[in-house]
Design goal:
Blueprint (H helix, E strand, L loop, with lengths): L2 H23 L4 H28 L5
């Protein structure tokens, strides 16, 4: 797994925890969290694209 993918997954988990805490404490609304999600999703999609590109460049060993 690439470092970019690992970082994106960690950020995704941290985002989820922070979002739940912010909702429960009333710090943020669902709409605010949904808006922030777009940035997190973009990083995750970018990391996934890099992962898929690397897989195409490196043949799998059987």
């Amino acid at each position: 797994m690439s470092p970019e993918t690992i970082l994106a997954l960690v950020q995704l988990g941290r985002f989820a925890i922070d979002a739940i805490e912010a909702l429960h404490s009333g710090e943020k609304t669902e709409e605010e969290i949904a808006a922030e999600w777009q940035a997190v999703r973009l990083r995750l999609d970018s990391a996934n694209a890099l992962w898929e590109e690397a897989a195409l460049e490196t043949p799998a060993e059987i």
